């Protein structure tokens, strides 16, 4: 009886999961096989036509390249720097509680507010160009968000800035549960903080680093559309278009739902492969 009662109590959660989690994923694959030019337009079966259209579109390949660069640059910088910051905070330096709060601040700021901060700093008359002119480096000024060579880099900088503090707090919380005897024994053997950080503490929390890396991977892969939308609109041209923004652009601007969800399927599969790869890289060796 208790087991049957527990099963009955789990039914609402299972129904919610199927409707709101499994359902949308299945809908992506269904819509990807349709020709659907807008929400109120007639729908017809497209088969693999959407896949051919996507693969023949140079904008899609620009988005693939931009997303790959974004992940390859932002993710390692964010995880490595956040781990080092988290290790420093876990050592409880003077004012470590205040440092935790300061690191967490970017996570408390709304995405539009973060975008406005970066827009104010990187606009032609913004803080970055003003600082360069004040330092006598006016020749280095640029329209950072409107230049094909720097727009994507600005978005990557925003990704790192907005995620590094929150991730560092997570690492500090996990490192705080590591027995202090490990670090003390390593230091008695002559290991400095650098070696203790990477050779002693890192292997202990290796699986947790993998979990945090997966979370940041998913956030960067699927959440970059909002930063692109607010700052660059994918431009100039397609120089800062990412896969997640391309899904939004084709669905809500171009009203091509079949194309949009075909890219969504590719994005879903890329996320799945990325998660499995990260899990394999960071799995414990014992």
Structure description:
This protein has 286 residues and is an all-alpha fold. The chain has 12 helices and 2 strands. A two-stranded antiparallel ribbon has the order 1-2. The longest helix is centred in the N-terminal third of the chain and has 33 residues. The mean pLDDT is 88.
Give a summary of the structure in a few sentences.
This protein has 286 residues and is mostly helical. Helix content is 74%, strand content 1%.
What separation lies between the terminal Cα atoms?
40 Å
Q: What is the strand arrangement across the widest sheet?
A: 1-2
Number of strands: 2
Q: Report the portion of residues in β strands.
A: under 5%
Residue stretches low in confidence (pLDDT < 50, at least 5 long) are none
Which overall shape is indicated by the principal axes computed on the Cα atoms? globular
Q: From N to C, what is the helix and strand string?
A: HEEHHHHHHHHHHH
Describe the biggest sheet?
A: 2 strands, antiparallel
Mean pLDDT: 88
Number of H/I helices: 12
Name some characteristics of this structure.
286 residues; mainly alpha; two-stranded antiparallel ribbon; 12 helices; 74% helix; globular; transport; MetI-like_sf; cell membrane
Please give the structural blueprint.
Blueprint lengths: L1 H31 L1 E2 L8 E2 L3 H7 L2 H33 L5 H13 L2 H12 L4 H8 L16 H25 L4 H9 L4 H12 L1 H26 L11 H11 L3 H26 L4
Antiparallel strand pairs: 1-2
Helix pairs in contact: 1-12, 2-12, 3-7, 3-10, 4-7, 5-10, 7-10, 8-9, 10-11, 10-12, 11-12
């Amino acid at each position: 009886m208790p087991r049957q009662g527990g099963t009955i109590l789990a039914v609402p959660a299972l129904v919610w999961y199927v409707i709101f989690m499994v359902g949308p994923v299945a809908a992506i694959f269904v819509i990807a096989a349709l020709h659907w030019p807008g929400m109120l337009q007639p729908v017809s079966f497209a088969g693999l036509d959407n896949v051919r259209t996507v693969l023949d579109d140079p904008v899609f390949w620009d988005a693939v390249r931009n997303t790959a660069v974004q992940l390859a640059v932002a993710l390692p910088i964010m995880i490595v720097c956040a781990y080092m910051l988290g290790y420093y905070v876990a050592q409880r330096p003077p004012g470590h509680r205040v440092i935790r709060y300061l690191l967490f601040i970017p996570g408390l700021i709304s995405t539009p507010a973060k975008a406005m901060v970066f827009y104010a700093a990187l606009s032609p008359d913004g803080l970055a160009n003003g600082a360069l002119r004040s330092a006598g480096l006016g020749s280095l000024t640029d329209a950072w968000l409107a230049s094909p060579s720097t727009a994507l880099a600005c978005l990557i900088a925003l990704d790192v800035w907005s995620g590094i503090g929150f991730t560092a707090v997570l690492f500090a919380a996990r490192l705080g549960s590591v027995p202090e005897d490990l670090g003390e024994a390593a230091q008695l053997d002559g290991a400095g903080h650098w070696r203790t950080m990477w050779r002693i503490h890192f292997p202990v929390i290796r699986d947790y680093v993998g979990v945090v890396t997966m979370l940041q991977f998913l956030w960067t892969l699927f959440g970059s559309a909002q930063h692109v939308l607010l700052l660059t609109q994918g431009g100039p041209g397609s120089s800062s278009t990412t896969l997640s923004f391309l899904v939004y652009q084709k669905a809500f601007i171009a009203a091509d739902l079949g194309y949009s969800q075909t890219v969504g399927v590719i994005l879903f599969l890329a996320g799945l492969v990325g998660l499995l790869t990260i899990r394999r890289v960071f799995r414990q060796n014992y």
